[in-house]
Amino acid sequence: MNKFMFNHEPAYFTPLEFDRLITFLHDQGASDITIQSGENVIADIQGRLYRVTVRKLTQQEASDLINHIYGANATAQVQSGTDLDTSYQVTLAEKVFRYRVNITACQLQGYNGLQVTLRTITANPPAIKDMGLDETLQKSLQILKGVVVISGATGSGKSTLLASLIANFLEKPDSNLKVLTYESPIEYVYDNIVKPSSVISQSEIPKHLPSFSMGVRNALRRKPGLILVGEARDKPTLEAVIEATLTGHPVYTTVHSNGVVDSFRRMVNLFSAEERQARLYDLIETVQAIVWQVLVPTVDGLRTPLREYLVMTDTIREQLYQVSADNINIFLKEALAKYGKPLIHEVKEKLSRGIISEQIANKFISYKGD
């Protein structure tokens, strides 16, 4: 028996018993918990997987948990072929833990099993001063209108950076903002943030509203002061984001991409060939800044973000208006090098300060062709 076994294992796991197990595993430092019908509960602790229950769970136990986390009939939705993403908060003995949750059906011993994956997330957003933003970038991300795009791969810290920006707005005594967020799932909450003059309402997609695009259109009926859209992943969502910004609302969103230039290209390419030139003009007018980031190991065993960014100025916009959608990449590469901060600059800075190793730096120097 390993040291991480749950010593108070019940004969049947009710949702409350699962909460007790999750609390126990949080205290053991688990970053990832897998709860699956027909299997022991498995926890990822410091990169190693441990079976933490003696007994394998029944289908009914997994089903009860899923319906508790997501709501009635969630099991039926999953077994019909829809995986669910949501968040879950455990409050037990004055402790509050938050998890990002995925619920998926799986084949198990000839029948449709169920798997719940819980990934630890920090309940409170980090302070913006801890985000490592240089002064120019931090000021440029505090917009009154238009759209800020935070891009990167999954796990690059996009949601964390956005949460710190939102918290910063909420904490200011003179913000006077109604902040509306549409996320999938809700990761950070702002219950412990002092809000002198602002209010925030968070909606989860598709739990509270069916899609991000519907979320943005919902926001426009609620007189928002600031809108956060978890991801501009498709044409309807990006159209809604553009509509919101053209009507004078500040919007913050994310894009999965491989760099600042790729972020702009991906947004343009969401539209058909016939629409691209017109939509390119809309993006030129509305995009205020694009930030791309990746998290890398530091020499002391932690992680740090490497960022590149381009803040849109009138000079850049005037030049972009002369560019066709087909040639946008070439110009943006030149604009990033001349007016922005390419990733290679950040890599060399953090290498010279001893924050990252030469091995890590060389990966990005080679990747960017420098």
From TrEMBL:
<dbReference type="Pfam" id="PF00437">
    <property type="entry name" value="T2SSE"/>
</dbReference>
<dbReference type="InterPro" id="IPR050921">
    <property type="entry name" value="T4SS_GSP_E_ATPase"/>
</dbReference>
<protein>
    <submittedName>
        <fullName>ATPase</fullName>
    </submittedName>
</protein>
<dbReference type="InterPro" id="IPR001482">
    <property type="entry name" value="T2SS/T4SS_dom"/>
</dbReference>
<feature type="domain" description="Bacterial type II secretion system protein E">
    <location>
        <begin position="21"/>
        <end position="299"/>
    </location>
</feature>
<comment type="similarity">
    <text>Belongs to the GSP E family.</text>
</comment>
<dbReference type="InterPro" id="IPR027417">
    <property type="entry name" value="P-loop_NTPase"/>
</dbReference>
